[in-house]
Amino acid sequence: MQLFITFVLFLLALLRLSRASFYDNPPLELPPAEGTPLDELERKWGTDFGFSGIMTYAHLPHIRCLTTPSELFDIGILGVPFDTSVSYRTGARFGPRAIRAASARQTSFRGFNARAGLNPYTAWPKILDCGDVPVSPFDNALALRQMSEAYLELVNRRALSYDESTFWTHPRVVSLGGDHSIALPALRALNKVYEQPIAVLHFDAHLDTWHPAKYPSAWFESPGAQSDMNHGSMFWIASNEGLILNSSSVHAGLRTRLSGDDFGDYHDDDRQGFLRIETDDIDVLGVNGIVRTILDTIGTETPLYLSIDIDVLDPGIAPGTGTPEPGGWTTRELIQILRGIEGLNIVGADVVEVSPGYDDRAEGTALAGAHVAYEIITSIVKRGMKDRGLWVESEHEKPGRLSNWRDKAKQVISDMGDGAQKVVGARNEL
C-alpha cells in the first residue's frame, strides 16, 4: 500500500511539472518611482559573461585616464597602438585590441590565481583599463613625444593607495603594445618620475640594443635622426640616455642572429651592461635556474621595468608577431619563469609585438599575451600585499598534496648555488 501511495504522488508531481510553462515567470512590475536601488541594479546587471560586455581588459572598468585625472587608480592597463618602427611585419597597432579580446574569459568572479593564492581583480588595488594612447601613425617623432607625455601623465599621478613607506607612491602602468619601441617612452617617463635609472628585465628573442647604424643604409644619418628609433634600437637609445640601470638588467630568451661576421653585437650589448640568458640555457638550467639567475642579478628591491616581447615564445605557439624566430620557449615555460620572479619590484611593464593579422585562427598569440599580462598584474598585486603587511602565508597556501611545492622549488634553486650564474656567465664571455 505504501508503495502504491508513493507511486501516485510521483505521478501527480510529474503532472504538475508537465503543466508548468517555460514562461511562468513572476509578473513584470514597474520600478519604484524613486528608482531601483543601486545595489539591486548591481546585483542584477553588474556581472558579464566572458562573451558579453564592452571589450576592456578582463572586463575591468574603463576610464579614459588621460583625460580624467580625478579618477585615481593603482594599476592601469594602457593600450599603445603604435607599430611604425618595426623592421619586418607591421600590424601590432591592433595588438591592444586583440589582447583585450583574448582576455574576455578573465573575470573578477573567476580570477583567482591558484599559484599566487589571490584574485588580483578583487584584492586591494584599484585596477582600470585606461584605454589607448591616440598615437600618430604618420610621424614617428610626434608619436614618440605623444607616448612619452602620455606615460608621464599617468605615472606621475598619485596612486589611489598611496603609501610612501612601501614605495607605492605612483600607479603602475601595464602597457599593451604596439611594437617594442614603446618601451623607450615608458623608460623616459619612469626615469623622470623616480629620478633614477630603472632596471630592465627584457624577455625577447632579440637583443634590441643595436646601434641604429646596424640597419645598413646609404641614407643613414648620424645618431639623433628620427630613423634611429626602431623596435631593435630603443634600449640602445635608453642606455645612452642613462635611463637603464645597466648593471642590474637582463635579457632572457635570446636566440637572435647577429650582425656581420662576428660577436660585435654582443660586445655592444656588454657595454650596455645587460646579462644575456639564451633560449637554450633553459635546457641546462631549467626554469628554476633561469629564475635564480634573474633574481641574483636584479634583486627584489630595485625598481624594475618588465618588458615582454611575445616573440620570446616559439612561433609554432605564438605566430602572430612582427619578427618570429623558431626555437623559442613555450608559453608554460615563460609563465613558470614569471611566477618564479613574482617578488621583483615592478614599477612598469609591457606586453608587446602581438600582431593579430598573423595569428592563428585560435588567437593563440593574443591569448598568450593576455595571460602574460594577468600574471604580471598578479605579481604586482601580491608584492603590494606583502609590502603592506596584508599577506598571511597560511591564508593563501595552496591546499592538497602539492601545497609545499614552493618550498621544494626554493630548495632546488638554493641547492644550485652559483651554477646558474656560471653557465650564463660563460655564454656572456663570448
From TrEMBL:
Membrane-spanning ranges: none
UniProt record, GO biological process: putrescine biosynthetic process from arginine, via agmatine
GO molecular function: agmatinase activity; metal ion binding
InterPro entries reported for this sequence: Ureohydrolase, Ureohydrolase_dom_sf, Ureohydrolase_Mn_BS
Source organism, top-level taxon: Eukaryota
PROSITE patterns noted in UniProt: ARGINASE_1, ARGINASE_2
Signal peptide: 1-20
Pfam family, one: Arginase
UniProt keyword Hydrolase, yes or no: yes
Statement: the UniProt record of this protein carries the keyword Signal: yes
Family as reported in the entry's similarity comment: Belongs to the arginase family. Agmatinase subfamily.
PANTHER family: ARGINASE/AGMATINASE, GUANIDINO ACID HYDROLASE, MITOCHONDRIAL
Protein name: Agmatinase
